[in-house]
Amino acid sequence: MWTLLLFLTAAFAAEPPGTFMGRTLAQTMSYHGAPWLTRASRQQEERTDLLHAFLGLEPGDTACDIGSGNGFHTLPMAKMVAPGGLALGVDIQPEMLALLQERAAAAGVTNVRGVRNTQASVGLPEGTCDVALMVDVYHELADPAPMLATLRDALQADGELVIVEYREEDPAVPIKPLHKMSKAQVHKELTANGFQLVRQRDDLPWQHVMAYQRSDGPGPAIEPTAWEKAGR
Known about the structure:
Structural class: alpha/beta
Order of helices and strands: HEEHHHEHEHEEHEHEE
Shape: globular
Oligomer: single chain
CATH class: Alpha Beta
CATH topology: Rossmann fold
Number of domains: 1
């Protein structure tokens, strides 16, 4: 097992249950809330077109949507990697994976596969993902350290893990505080678990976008910029 993971497991063992590196863990949203993921206002509220452009996916790539839910991001990613590419929707809830397959079939998207993960593993072979996307999911991981270790292994050598989280720094973002994260906290946790920041953007209405490679990836590593509200 990865030596760094063993070290971190021991270092964080003294933390209170339900916390990680000083942060209170949020609960996973139930599949009963799936309609909210595909609400008609979401594209405009979150400018998902800007996010998808940021991913840089190309035909033939393997795109991994971690915590895919019913596939709001998975289906556009599948279209971006076609022809020849594959979109993997990874979720811990079988009900969400069933909804993903229903939506893919209805849309005629054939290059989507569902993968059920566990709380401690992403459930993907090593070197699978050109891009792994986690949209408003990372803060809900019940056991972040082992999950990050398996995500690290699942990335290709130059692959990217793109973390998208609602901005804790902005009280105007209409999301409960427990479901927000600051750039500083995201970066603290990712770099402590074998990742380096290589790209970022802050022009989405509500969310940070931070792209990480493995710490042994080609980089170069950069530091997160401080978020400042536009026009402030």
